[in-house]
Amino acid sequence: xxxxxxxxxxxxxxxxxxxxxxxxxxxxxxxxxxxxxxxxxxxxxxxxxxxxxxxxxxxxxxxxxxxxxxxxxxxxxxxxxxxxxxxxxxxxx
Length: 93
Description:
4-stranded antiparallel sheet, mainly beta, 8 strands
């Protein structure tokens, strides 16, 4: 398990659409937001539908797999201060 990021999104900040497919692995992100449904993780599913997963007040977590063959397009936006701590779970270093 390797730390892959520690971010502070201040009010109205975002991370644009990306895949992280250059580093395939299982990823886990913990997010903390002081307000309910004021920040989110948005992604495109396998059917090419855009889905939004809102952060709840306090801590939330997400677990998703990144591969070169099946990249997960995703982005983040926050209307409030939001902390995010990410980890890469790699089975073969």
